[in-house]
Design brief:
Low-confidence stretches: 210-214
Strand content: under 5%
Helix content: over 70%
Mean pLDDT: 77
Order of helices and strands: HHHHHHHH
Radius of gyration: 18 Å
Shape: globular
Amino acid sequence: MIGTNALLGVSAVALGMVLTPGPNMMYLVSRSITQGRRAGLLSLAGVAVGFLAYLSAANLGLSVVFLAVPELYAAVKLAGAGYLVWLAWKALRPGGLSVFAPQALAPDPPRRLFAMGLLTNLLNPKIAVMYLSLIPQFIRPGAGSALVQGFTLGGVQIAVSLAVNLGIVLAAGSIAAFLADRPGWLRAQRYLMGTVLGLLAVKLATERSTAAPV
């Protein structure tokens, strides 16, 4: 049975990463502001399918590879921690720009909105690292099948990410207007997320863990 610490850990990682501006957030915000909430929701549907594709691919093949090659597992783990450090630096560095001030985009039809949301997620290195390195840290040999754990923890990540992105889509216009006159709020958000991601990176890099059996 998956422990509470694993569920909370994945939720914290997912929340920290989804709140850090990246390709998904930039595309969803841009579409929501320039084309309306419906466009943002269609784009978000594509993002959701991208999550499911990554989740299935990761859980149906990677656990076997990691079990056979523990060194690869350790390398991927360190790469994930390094990527979190990079995201933390992007959030904390001077001169960062707000994701809520995107470039104007020409309107797209519904099919293209969905396709671009899917493609943006599939090509997002943040999501690749999430499934290839970060989520496997919370799979434990004594908690049952790695496959079941992987899909369960991935489901938690998807739920957290979609809930946050849904809120962003629905409130993008209001948030953009609010932050336009309050740069201090934006800096506080960046510093908070950067600190959280940095602490998570240290935890993942120093925690001893092994790949669980399928």
